[in-house]
Amino acid sequence: MDLACRNIYKDAGIQIDLLTSKNLAEFYAGDAWFDRVSSSPQDFLEEHYDFIIIQSVHHRALKAKVKFFKQVPWVCIQGFYDVPDFSRTEWGARRVFDLLGKSPAPEYFDYSALQKSSVQSTQFQTPSEIPLVIAVGGMDAVRTFKGWSALIQMLALDASFSEVVLIGAGESANLASEEIMQLDIGGLKITSLVGKTTLADCFNILKRAQLFVAADGGLLHLAVAASAKRIVSLFIVGIPPELRIPVNYRSDALTSASGDVNDIAVRAVANKIQARI
Hints:
- It is a single chain.
- This protein is an alpha/beta fold.
- It folds into two domains: 4-112, no CATH class; 133-274, Glycogen Phosphorylase B (Rossmann fold), CATH 3.40.50.
- The protein has helices spanning 7-11, 22-28, 59-68, 88-100, 106-112, 148-157, 171-181, 199-207, 218-225, 266-274, and strands at residues 18-19, 37-38, 52-54, 74-76, 133-135, 163-167, 189-192, 212-215, 231-235, 253-255.
- The strands form three sheets. Strands 7-6-5-8-9-10 form a six-stranded parallel beta sheet, with helices on both faces. The protein has a two-stranded parallel sheet with strand order 1-2.
- Helix 6 packs across helix 10 and helix 8 crosses helix 9 (218-225).
- It is elongated and about 60 Å long.
């Protein structure tokens, strides 16, 4: 979300490089808007920069700046405002336009605030279309949905889908995948790619998904960047879909009545999926 507005720099004729984590550096390699991408600060030490951009005034964001680029002026996208209840894509775009002293047309602002990617292809082979893709697991307990197994059983009983592909990474994703793969469901092919894909692989899968279902998190935003055909998304009340996804996906979003995504009933998710099959 915070990198959605990177097109603004390129369009203004400003070279912009990205220093990030290894998995994100691999994903953004060859990006249409970044000039150079790396997870190693040493790759940028010989370059002269007019300024450094960091996400927030937080030690994780400031660490590399202070250590490797101490004398370079810097700007900050979020400042000290480090809470979830705002639209990070729109915030980032507005901050960059303010930095450059520009007043964009509404259409250009909306484009700059949209999650997007220029990834063209990967070595990961997928069918031309995948009926249903589900992102399991999560990093935040209150946004980690635990009803995927029950949901798949409901969908199988209604013969809604012939195939489902699971994606995700991490301990909670592995546990969810193991539970689902133990289901005895005749007629429904379940393929787990949990822990077996890169971000670029997931992007390729999501571009081919007829339907993607996920709780609010990184893979949901990757699906938006991939222009997934249809997304059923799950949100907690404190972070509604209006703050995270474009308007064209919001009619298929569900929001819990509390700060826990598991307060969304599994049947409600199934009904939302089946409403437009």
